[in-house]
Backbone:
């Protein structure tokens, strides 16, 4: 799963990328190289299991962030648009700190401006396809769907605002519409503003659109990322934050792409496995190893909190907190799963 960091030039995409990945990148206006980095998803459940088992290895879920070079003179350039089409979700970085010339940011204008540009880019794609389908009359269902999308876009509504079925989403997947991609907003603020809520107008705009909004200062987060783990929380606390803002941001990004975490634990490894929401037990087992999927017999499932509270699988079994589930079981976020299989 790939998440693209997008936004206007100088909004702090590269700085946010650096804060998330710990990869030192060129910041500064016009540094337009595309950077890719893998990020661990902080997970207190995995930490709790690791305290219980003291395993040899602890493995977190991971997501890939791409700092998308923002070629931008009269609008987002083609290359950037195409790169944006190739990611699974977008995080727009909004500048709320003064630029090198001392100009304050206007995050709301960046949000609406970017929205307009992506709407127009999608409209171009949809219009071309609608014209084609009208002409050759080959697929009335698809035409009807695209007309609906076109209507929304023309009314300045992103495609994600429409209530689309699973089937319709599948039909649309080949078009890689930008306004259909999940979007998370990141307000990149001045160092002294990290503990302040986002401005009301921006919060309202985000909630009207059903978009998540995370406040952070990329520069502060970059500093935190350089520290030892134990110091990170203390430093965050000294700024009035419960945890580094980048942790909240990464978790929000993880939720954006509709993944949940299946957990496994034992003396060898405690681990979070990112799996799509709604996945059935055998397919989830296949994420660990194809043999386990093929030879799937059953899944023994404990909710992570029960396991941590009671302290062992045996205690959970005694207390009736261990469930035996079959092939049709839908894995839930935070399930600690032990698969029984036979090959
Ligand atoms: N004060 C302050 N400055 C920041 C913050 N984040 C980024 N900057 C500065 O803003 C400038 C632009 O940041 P970048 O991360 O390069 O922005 P970008 O979006 O990657 O820019 P392009 O790649 O040119 O589109 C740099 O000089 C950063 O040091 C922040 O949180 N606070
Ligand atoms: Mg950059």
Residues:
């Amino acid at each position: 799963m790939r998440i693209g960091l997008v936004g206007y030039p100088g909004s702090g995409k590269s700085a946010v990328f650096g804060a998330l990945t710990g990869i030192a990148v060129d910041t500064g206006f016009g540094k337009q190289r595309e950077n890719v980095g893998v990020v661990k998803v902080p997970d207190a459940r995995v930490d709790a299991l690791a305290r219980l088992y003291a395993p040899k290895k602890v493995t977190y879920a991971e997501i890939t962030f791409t700092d998308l070079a923002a070629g931008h003179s009269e609008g987002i350039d083609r290359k950037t648009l195409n790169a944006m089409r190739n990611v699974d979700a977008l995080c727009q970085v909004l500048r709320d700190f003064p630029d090198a010339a001392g100009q304050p940011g206007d995050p709301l204008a960046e949000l609406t401006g970017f929205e307009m540009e992506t709407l127009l880019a999608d409209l171009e794609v949809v219009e071309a396809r609608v014209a084609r389908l009208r002409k050759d009359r080959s697929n009335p269902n698809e035409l009807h769907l695209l007309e609906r999308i076109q209507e929304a876009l023309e009314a300045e509504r992103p495609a994600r605002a429409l209530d689309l079925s699973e089937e319709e989403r599948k039909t649309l997947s080949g078009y890689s519409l930008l306004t259909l991609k999940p979007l998370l907003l990141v307000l990149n603020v001045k160092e002294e503003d990290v503990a302040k809520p986002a401005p009301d107008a921006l919060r309202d705009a985000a909630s009207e659109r059903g978009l998540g909004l995370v406040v952070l200062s990329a520069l502060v987060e970059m500093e935190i990322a350089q520290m030892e783990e134990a110091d990170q929380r203390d430093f965050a606390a000294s700024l009035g934050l419960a945890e580094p803002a980048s942790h909240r941001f990464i978790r929000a990004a993880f939720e954006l792409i509709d993944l949940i975490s299946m957990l496994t634990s034992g003396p060898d490894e405690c681990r979070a496995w990112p799996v799509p929401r709604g996945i059935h037990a055998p397919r989830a087992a296949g994420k660990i190893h194809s043999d386990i999927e093929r030879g799937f017999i059953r899944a023994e499932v404990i909710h992570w909190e029960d396991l941590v509270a009671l302290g062992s699988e045996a205690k959970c079994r005694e207390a009736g907190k261990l469930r035996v589930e079959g092939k049709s079981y839908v894995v839930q976020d935070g399930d600690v799963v032990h698969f029984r299989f036979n090959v």
In short: The chain is about 40% helix and 20% strand.
